[in-house]
TrEMBL record:
Species: Hyphomonas oceanitis SCH89
Protein name, as recorded: Aldehyde dehydrogenase
NCBIfam families found in the cross-reference section: OH_muco_semi_DH
SUPFAM superfamilies the UniProt entry points to: ALDH-like
Alphabetically ordered keywords of this record: NAD, Oxidoreductase
Similarity remark: Belongs to the aldehyde dehydrogenase family.
Active-site residues, as the UniProt record annotates them: E263
Database matches in PROSITE patterns: ALDEHYDE_DEHYDR_CYS, ALDEHYDE_DEHYDR_GLU
GO molecular function, one term: oxidoreductase activity, acting on the aldehyde or oxo group of donors, NAD or NADP as acceptor
Positions of the Aldehyde dehydrogenase domain: 23-489
Highest taxon in the source lineage: Bacteria
Coiled coil feature spans: none
Length: 494
């Protein structure tokens, strides 16, 4: 149950190490800003290199403590209790997430917080029902051997997270990591430290042994992020964020040959054929472009529309864009802010670049006029362009804002080539009522996830991840087990 009225959130955000909340040992802090107003609403205590080392040591020690000795059933029980406690404290998580991100409460209450709990429940189920592998093997003496696989936790997992769905994306990694018996050290985004810190209270409330779940706050290079990825006692690193950051982390992971799982950026294409159900396509794509103010890794920034319906599509998408109200908190069509002033500058840089590159601005294109408390928030207008070349900067680089370019196409082969002509490969959507074409085109997309006539319809048991510059590895359901466990084979001669 959630309410709509925000309550005051904590103004001091601490590290969580070995089951206790702590300031940073060097006394450094940074501001926590509410992007909906631009106001500083809290102080975050930054972890020093020594604090990060303490967190990793606590996580290592926990592997040898009660946590490491628990049966799967005991671990599953605790993880299910974490999910239940998040649900019980849903309002606290909602307030914290909305304060950090400025996102609409209806988005956080329908997506972020329930998924935060579901990520624990689902991976508890996966681990509780996981089948094993075994083979009976003939031996040279005419006898038999049995081979069977056992899965063991990898150890201490570093979890480095972005700011767009802070609790959801963090628990997507923490859920399976803990279900598999690992311990974790989280480095939440510097923009959104609250829900990771709050989850420490949940861990203590359900009796999670100390050191299993740790949180260190700070930035990337030269701060907590780099201290964590450089720590030699971290056994594997799971990261969601920008492709460039992934490259920097991979260099650190090379020392000690540590495994990585990466969910990175995208420049996702949508293909709308002339036979599509246009109502469905407009509804799905207006969510895909504008939800969370376009700050969704799976969001669409390139739309290819078959020429006979191009004009009608553009007209209807422009109307859809105009229904969002940046800065009008509480309105059902409230469009939240971008995460920071810096990110708004970046997005506005692309808005200017689009015009430079010859775009026709069909909707938006600038900064909305916002009154009252929200006047200092980091809002931009939902924006739609036509007239951009497929190889323009705006159509090639990830913007991560509420905007897309729309380009016409004439044939299936042409549009498959256009959609795949990118270094990224996270996801795509295909809109058509022709069944054969739907399967054919979806299979031709060089991406990790392709949706047909829908978007962001997630079943947490399915493989999730990207190809090319969009990531390494797959997480979700049993696929997560590949990363969060080491498989050992035992061969017994009978
Ligand atoms: P980011 O890469 O800037 O930061 C992500 C995290 O990495 C933050 O916690 C940051 O402090 C940390 N970090 C930065 N530099 C580091 C370093 N050198 N060493 C260690 N840690 C470092 O990304 P962001 O701006 O927070 O998030 C937006 C990006 O995330 C977009 O590119 C988006 O596409 C991507 N994303 C991908 C997925 C996915 O599932 N593929 C999901 C959400 C977001």
């Amino acid at each position: 149950m959630t309410t709509n009225s925000p309550r005051p959130v904590a103004d001091t955000i601490l590290n969580f190490i070995g089951g206790s909340y702590r300031k940073g040992s060097q006394g450094k802090t940074f501001d926590n800003v509410n992007p909906a107003t631009g106001q500083t609403i809290g102080t975050v205590h930054e972890a020093s290199e020594a604090d990060v080392a303490d967190a990793v040591a606590a996580a290592e020690a926990a592997l040898d403590g009660p946590w490491g000795k628990m049966t799967t059933a005991e671990r599953v029980k605790l993880i299910v209790a974490v999910a239940a406690e998040i649900e019980r404290r849903a309002d606290d998580f909602l307030d914290a997430e909305v304060a950090d991100t400025g996102k609409p409460r209806h988005v956080a209450s329908h997506i972020d917080i329930p998924r935060g709990a579901a990520n624990f429940r689902m991976f508890a189920d996966v681990i509780a029902t996981m089948p094993g592998e075994s083979f009976t093997t003939p031996t040279p003496d005419g006898g038999q051997a049995i081979n069977y696989a056992v899965r063991k936790p990898k150890g201490v997992i570093a979890v480095i997270c972005p700011w767009n769905f802070p609790l959801l994306l963090m628990t997507w990694k923490v859920g399976p990591a803990l279900a598999c018996g690992n311990t974790v050290v989280i480095k939440p985004s510097e923009e959104t430290p609250r829900t990771a810190a709050l989850l420490g209270e949940v861990m203590n409330a359900v009796g999670m042994p100390e050191g299993v779940y740790n949180v260190v706050h700070g930035f990337g290079g030269g701060s907590a992020g780099e201290f964590l990825t450089s720590n030699k006692d971290v056994d594997a690193i799971t990261f969601t964020g920008e492709t460039g950051t992934g490259q920097a982390i991979m260099q650190k992971a090379a020392v000690g040959v540590r495994d990585v799982s990466f969910e990175l950026g995208g420049k996702n294409a949508a293909i709308v054929f002339a036979d599509a159900d246009l109502d469905k396509a407009i509804e799905g794509l207006s969510r895909s472009v504008f939800l969370n103010t376009g700050q969704v890794c799976l969001g669409t920034e390139r739309v290819y529309v078959e020429r006979p319906i191009f004009d009608e599509f553009v007209q209807r998408m422009a109307l859809a864009a105009q229904t969002f109200k940046p800065g009008v908190i509480g309105d059902p069509t409230y469009l939240g802010p971008l995460i920071s002033a810096e990110h708004r500058d970046k997005v506005l840089g692309y808005y200017a670049k689009a015009v430079e590159e010859g775009a026709t601005v069909v909707a938006g294109g600038g900064v909305p006029k916002v009154d009252g408390d929200q006047a200092g928030g980091f809002y931009v207008e939902p924006t739609l362009w036509t007239g951009l070349a497929h190889d323009s900067t705006v159509m090639r680089e990830e913007i991560f804002g509420p905007c897309c370019g729309v380009i016409p196409f004439d044939s299936e082969d042409e549009v498959i080539a256009l959609a795949n002509d990118t270094d990224y490969g996270l996801c795509a959507t295909v809109w058509t009522e022709n069944l054969s074409r739907a399967h054919r085109v979806a299979a031709a997309m060089q991406v990790g996830v392709c949706w047909v006539n829908c978007w962001f319809l997630r079943d947490l048991r399915t493989a999730f991840g990207g190809s090319g510059h969009s990531g390494i590895g797959r997480e979700g359901g049993v696929h997560s087990l590949e990363f969060y466990t080491e498989t050992a084979n035992i061969c017994v001669k009978l």
